[in-house]
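Data availability (excerpt). The following record was deposited with the supplementary files.
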Amino acid sequence: MIREKTTVEIIQEIQKALNKYNLPVKVDIAEAREGADIGLNIYVYKKRNWKLHDKINSVIQEVLEEEDLIPYINWHYEQN
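Predicted structure:
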């Protein structure tokens, strides 16, 4: 029998993958909405720009693709 990963384990994997690229991000659990399998709050400690957003999203999708999960992501960017 294959053991399924918990939400916390998946979030830790995502955080670890983002840390590998030294991205200014913290990942937390959120409510999964709109038919998603997992809900994520993504806190980005920089102002929003498309290159950063794309890189973070790519890393997240790569990890979740391995688990065959569809995310609902709430993005929170630094306002200053």
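Summary of structural features: The first helix runs from residue 7 to 20.
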